[in-house]
Design a protein that fits this description.
Layout lengths: L1 E8 L5 E7 L10 H12 L8 H30 L2 H7 L7 H27 L3 H8 L8 H14 L4 E3 L2 E3 L3 H7 L2 H17 L1
Antiparallel strand pairs: 1-2, 3-4
Helix pairs in contact: 2-7, 4-5
Amino acid sequence: MPYLIPDRPRQDGVVAFRCERVDNTIAPETDPDQLLLAEQRVTAPAPFPATPEMLRQAVADGVARYFAARRARVQPFVDRHFSLLGSAAIHRAALGWDILRAPANILLAGPHAGVKAAGSLARAAGARRLGDRVSGYSLLLKTDVGRRIEWLVCTELLELPYRQGARVSTKDALVEAILDDPRLQTLALDLLRAVAMRG
């Protein structure tokens, strides 16, 4: 089979190669490691053209697929959790301290709206940092029903990583949709092959 035989180095230090046919033997006075390196260079696959434009388009397509899938899940999600039976299951939590939190939140709704308005006015006056801090305050009490709905929206509808107390969901449908792009999968395989050949 043909091999690339390293020739004498040039003055600039670059080693030139000449192609010779070697029948089941190694050419005399040739380093076997150099032969193997030359053969790997010849047989190495061409790099996949991972241009910035291609990567941006792959990510954009993945994001579009993710949101299309979320839209398709909205109606089943609503039917499952906000029907008569589903809503009853969610509001079982209201039988605890939520019985007291709900009336308190009704009383705090006015002051809470005032805090948000003050934050907006501060931003409009140029005090953006102060406005963001004020708007970040919430006078409303967290309810068990609200926490339950947050958990369901983040983990079932959006399928994004979410932590709520001791509960943690690591599902990330957005990343999965992006990595499902055939261009990125081809790029990953090419990179793995290149690493394997160099290893």
